[in-house]
Design goal:
Helices cover 81% and strands 0% of the residues. It has helices spanning 5-34, 39-64, 69-89, 93-119, 127-156, 158-178, 209-236, 242-260, 263-266, 269-289, 293-322, 327-355, 361-365, 368-394. The chain is globular, with a radius of gyration of 20 Å.
Length: 395
Amino acid sequence: MLVTRNGAVLLAATFCYLASTMLANPLVAGFAGTLGATAAMMGVLTALMNACSLVVRPVAGNLSDRLPKRRLALAGAALMLVTALGQALAPSTALLAVMRLANGAGYSLCSVCMSTWFAETLPPARLGQGMGIFGLMNALGMAVGPALGIAVSDALGYRPALGLSAAFAALSLAGVLLVRDGGATRGGRGAQGEKDVRPRLRLLDRRAVPAAVVVALFTIPYMATQSFLVSYAEARGLDVPTGAFFTVYAAALMALRVLLGRAFDRVGFVPFVVASGASSAASLALLATMDGPAGLLLAAPLMAGGYGVMCSVCQSTAVRAVGAGRVGLANSTYYMGFDVGMTLGPVIGGALFGSVDLAWFFPALTLTAPVAVVVAALSAGAGRNRQRSKRNREM
């Protein structure tokens, strides 16, 4: 069986903590505006969570290979719960900034620990397929959260919607408590009775860096879209269902996951990056030229084929590149790239939204796709050279 009972509970907990985070992201900019923030500050406040997560990420990655996963995941989910409530109740931008920073620390612990914990439940031969399912939960949380947050905010206002973020964090906390296996730790006695040597602390694993860079490049346009799609539509006077974009995105991503099957284990990294880059660019082009709901809804499945698919591909690529012994550090490196994209996306989106003609907002974001293809191609070439050199040394 690919997904065990513990794995299924971890998938549910993963969906909830990501839904909690992503529900708040498209609301923070507008909520900060009601508290008196400028347009530039709105983008910065949105990005603060991921800026903190990026700093905490290396620590979380090393700890996840040394301490029980349950302990770290519980700490992360509890911190997310407290700070999500703090965001909903924040009376000023200063307190909102503090809550965003602390929320990022909790998010970092949850993301690294749960992904590493889940990877430990998978058969090695089906790691790519299993991490593809985990990536699907990531992407669904990132799609359902914004759609639900926008809907609740439209109906009830910002504070009740941000309160719903806390409810998802509570569900994630409950899920962690329901996992029966507390997560393996490094160290102790090996198969022959010898004591395992704990590896030295490392910030990242260079073998996972290309996948981290590629996911950052795909995350930037998605996060800019997530953060400013509502404001973009309002500024252009478009009568489009912006919340439906994320709902259609989620449905399309689920369909793609079924269609791709075990392709995550069989298709190379570069072909995925090329195909997903084209899909992402097409989505952004449709958003740039839309004049009604049709363009918006057609852009959603193309974004799923771009950013949504690459989340799974990059994570499984990072884990396979590093190997079973350092899954925590592999996931930490991957999520560092993810955090860079999630930090830069709202900041770049805010800069574009406030300084360029709206007609250039989405076209400017398409520049990340060809850069991602170049990074993937260079990485593949370097990998082939290393293998060739290794064979030559063995001859």
